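Encode chain A's predicted structure.
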Amino acid sequence: MSSARSSNPHEDIEEVLIDEAAIQARVRELGAEIASAYSGGEPLVLVSVLKGSLIFVADLMRAIPSNVVIDLMEVSSYGGGNTESSGTVRILKDLSGTIEGRDVLIVEDIIDTGLTLNYLMGYLGGKSPRSIRIVTLLNKPARRLVDLKVDWTGFEIPDKFVVGYGLDFGETYRNLRYVGVLKRELYASALGES
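Encoded structure for chain A:
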C-alpha cells in the first residue's frame, strides 16, 4: 500500500462526505439565518480562523444580505505536522481591528476537540465585544473535550479524517470543492500507525 499522494488530489479521497451542491445550499441557509439573528447597528464582524475557514468565510459573507466586516486570526494548536491538537494555543496573527462593543461571529471550518475554539472564545471575550457567537461548517462532536455552545453548524460529521473546502492535510487538499474522507494510508504515519 503506497502512502504517496497522487498528483490528482481527487484520487486520494476515499469517499465524498459532503458534495459541493450540499455545501453551497447550506451556506446560503446559514447566511440567511445569521442575518436574521442580527438587526441594525454596526456591521457584524466575521472573524475567520485561518487558514481552514478561508473558503467558508468567503462564501458565507456573500450569503449574508446585511453589512459585514471581516477580520482574520491565525492560531495554532498543532505542532510539526501533527494531526492531533496539542492543547497549547499560539496566536500567529491577531485581529487587525477592534471588536470592542461589536457583534462578533467566529467563523470556523471544523470543530473537533474544541480546545482551540475554547481558548479563542476567552481571548476574544477579553476584548469586550457586545456579543460573540460561533458558526462552523463542520462539527465533529465525537472528539469534543470541552463544552462549547456552537450557534450555527453547517454539518455534523462522524469521526473521520476530512479534507477539502478549506480543510487540509499537510497544507494540501484545501482547493477541493467538496468535503471528502482522506484515504487512511495517506495520514496513518502522522497518527503513528505503520
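Residues 12-189 form a domain with the Rossmann fold fold (CATH 3.40.50.2020).
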